[in-house]
Write a structure and sequence with these properties.
2 domains
C-alpha cells in the first residue's frame, strides 16, 4: 500500500503518527479495516434506539406520521378555503364605498400569501426530514 494512502487512513481513523515514527500493527489494522469495537457499539446503539422507538410507539407516546399529516390536512384545508373566499366575502366590509377595489386588494393579498405559507410548510418539511436523518 502506498504511504500516502496509509497516512490518509490513519488520519481518518484519528490515529496520531509521525511520518518516520513507529506505528503499531493494531493502529494499521484499525486504519485499514475500521475499529470492530466502535462498529459494534454503533450497531448496538442503533438497535437500542429502534427498540426504544417501538416501545414509545406501543405506549402511545409517538404518533404515526400519516395520522399527523391527515390531521394537518384536515386543519389546513378549511383555513385555505377561508383565505380564498376572503376577498369575495369581506370586500364590502373593508370598503363599502368601493367593494370592487377592496376585493382586488384582498384577492391580491391572498394570492401573495398562499405561496409564502406554502414555502414555510416546505421549510418545515425539510427540517423534519433532516431531523429524521439525524435520528
Amino acid at each position: 500500500m502506498d504511504r500516502a494512502t496509509l497516512a490518509k487512513r490513519l488520519r481518518m481513523a484519528g490515529i496520531q503518527y509521525t511520518p518516520h515514527g513507529k506505528i503499531s500493527a493494531m493502529d494499521i489494522y484499525r486504519a485499514l479495516c475500521g475499529d470492530d469495537k466502535q462498529a459494534r457499539a454503533r450497531r448496538e446503539n442503533a438497535q437500542a434506539e429502534m427498540l426504544e422507538s417501538r416501545l414509545q410507539e406501543r405506549r402511545g407516546n409517538l404518533i404515526p406520521k400519516e395520522m399527523v399529516q391527515t390531521a394537518m390536512r384536515n386543519f389546513c384545508l378549511p383555513v385555505r378555503q377561508r383565505l380564498n373566499s376572503l376577498a369575495s366575502e369581506c370586500a364590502h366590509l373593508c370598503n363599502p364605498t368601493d367593494p370592487v377595489h377592496a376585493r382586488g386588494v384582498l384577492a391580491d393579498w391572498t394570492k401573495r400569501s398562499l405561496p409564502v405559507i406554502r414555502e414555510e410548510k416546505h421549510k418545515m418539511d425539510v427540517k423534519s426530514k433532516s431531523l429524521k436523518r439525524e435520528l
